[in-house]
Design brief:
Blueprint lengths: L2 H21 L4 H4 L5 E6 L3 E5 L4 E4 L12 E5 L4 E8 L7 H6 L2 H4 L7 E10 L6 E9 H13 L6 E4 L11 E2 L4 E2 L6 H38 L4 H13 L3 H11 L4 E9 L2 E8 L5 H6 L4 E12 L5 E9 L7
Parallel strand pairs: 1-4, 4-8
Antiparallel strand pairs: 1-2, 2-3, 5-7, 6-7, 9-10, 11-12, 12-14, 13-14
């Protein structure tokens, strides 16, 4: 079994278990269990609505128009059967296909004319096998019931097999579709739709805030802030970005080797002009480039050899922090 099928199987199992737990909660469970109308009948005598105390023939005693809600035709054992089948654990992801392969021995009806649906599944302890309860009927017979119901003006939403012990319970399977009977909105569906709705609302609010509210807030702030505040704030930001003279001086003195000393330093509009003496003026370019606040170092003028053997230097550089110290 592929990873995708395993994931789908796990999600389906979790959803089914969650719905079952909610269904057992008093009052709350009834909200997710629509009230079905149970119909009994046969092809010769017609249909009747089954209730707690009586059986009302259709349409003689009750009109199909007066029957509100979904209708389930409950077949007698003459028209349908319940069979049990043992399946291996490997068939758990797709028990319907496993049942289809055994229809020739499981059903007295020809396989091509057999309508079936899995009514319940029970795990067994032996080799992790499990047993399934299967409702069987004839596709031909089901079509005859549907045609007769249409002639009587009765719409059948489901067909299942009669359980003599529980004649009025809601249907679990539907032989018309071969799947579980429609139970309306399940707790899992309601939970999923609610989460999706909340997500859509959150995204819509975020989009509205971004496109409508924030521009309006910016306009309101612009109209209500004192004159000159924007300029003052810009100047403050620019001042915070500047590097102090003391920091530049400390960086220069740390970068200069012991064989060099500065005689003057001028800072103007982010540019540094540094002059002094050194044993090797050309080597100062690389030395100053290693400083965290100085970049683009170059010789502003040619070095001059002094009488004492040193060289005068005149350097120009850009003041810009290469790191982001606190």
């Amino acid at each position: 079994m592929s990873a995708l099928k395993q994931l789908v199987h796990a999600i389906t199992g979790f959803s089914r278990a969650f719905d079952q737990q909610i269904a057992e909660v008093p009052l709350l469970g009834q909200l997710f269990s629509p009230k079905w109308n149970i119909i009994q009948g046969n092809l010769n005598d017609g249909f009747a609505l089954l209730s707690e105390n009586r059986l009302q023939s259709i349409p003689q005693q009750i009109s199909p128009k007066d029957i509100k809600g979904p209708n389930c035709l409950r077949l007698s054992t003459k028209d349908g059967q319940i069979r049990n089948l043992q399946l291996p654990a490997a068939a758990a992801p797709d028990p319907v296909s496993a049942v289809s392969l055994t229809l020739d021995t499981l059903s007295p009806i020809a396989p091509e004319d057999t309508a079936f649906a899995i009514q319940s599944t029970t795990k067994t302890t032996k080799n992790s096998d499990f047993s399934v309860s299967i409702a069987l009927s004839s596709k031909t017979r089901i079509k005859q019931f549907l045609d007769k119901a249409n002639e009587a003006g009765l719409r059948l939403s489901a067909i299942d097999i009669c359980n003599p012990l529980q004649p009025l319970v809601n249907p679990e399977i539907n032989l018309i579709t071969g799947k579980n009977a429609d139970t309306g909105f399940s707790p899992t569906q309601v939970w999923g739709v609610s989460c999706a709705g909340l997500l859509i609302i959150a995204l819509a609010l975020n989009l509205w805030t971004t496109t409508k509210l924030e521009p309006q807030l910016e306009q309101y702030q612009a109209l209500n802030q004192p004159a000159g505040l924007s300029s003052a704030m810009a100047q403050q930001v620019d001042w915070q970005k500047r590097i102090s003279v003391s920091r530049v001086w400390n960086a220069v003195t740390l970068a200069l080797p012991n064989s060099a000393w500065a005689q003057s330093m001028v800072i103007d509009k982010g540019q540094l002009r540094l002059s002094g003496k050194a044993i090797n003026a050309a080597a100062l370019v690389n030395a100053l480039e290693s400083s965290p606040v100085i970049s683009q170092v170059r010789l502003a003028a040619a070095s001059v050899q002094e009488d004492d053997g040193s060289e005068s230097f005149d350097l120009q550089a850009k003041i810009s922090a290469k790191d982001n110290p606190s």
